Amino acid sequence: MPPEQGVEQTVVVVYCDAPRQSSEWVLNLKPGETVAEALHRSVFASFPELDAKLIKLGIWGKKTRFGQILQAGDRLEVYRPLRVDPKVARRERFDKQGAKTAGLFAARRVGGKAGY
User: For residue 6, what is the enclosing H or E element?
Assistant: First the structure.
């Protein structure tokens, strides 16, 4: 059912600028407002150094785009780019720990068979 004309709808915008630090804005939008308009009123106003070409967006964890029209109750999430490739980070952690001290079967019983 489409929202009534002239009635404002509440949308939450969330951005994590650093690990374990998040900013949240509760916006009252007019029906038909887009993701881009919500971002300019919240994230880009508070963090002008953000590059719109580099960020990824989602609504409740599902990918979206700047032209998407927001609905009442939407949670718009702004994802920052990763600083390190997760595969590289895992490989470096494994190299640092060593092959015998990492993994599922690292702690074996004395006399136990591998994998049990």
Answer: none
Length of the chain: 116
User: Token digits for 2?
Assistant: 């489409």
Which residues have CB under 8 Å from 63's CB, separation 6+? 56, 57
Domains of the chain: 9-79 (3.10.20.30), 84-116 (no CATH)
- Mapped to the 3 state alphabet, what secondary structure does 43-105 carry? HHHHCCCCCCCCCEEEECCEECCCCCECCCCCEEEEECCCCCCHHHHHHHHHHHHCCCCCCCC
**Please, are residues 75 and 60 in contact by the beta-carbon 8 Å criterion?**
yes
Per-residue DSSP letter, 69? B
Q: Please give the structure tokens belonging to residue 5.
A: 């004309």
Residue-wise pLDDT for 35-82, tens only, equals 888 888 888 877 777 777 778 899 998 999 988 898 899 999 988 777
User: Amino acid letter at 105?
Assistant: F
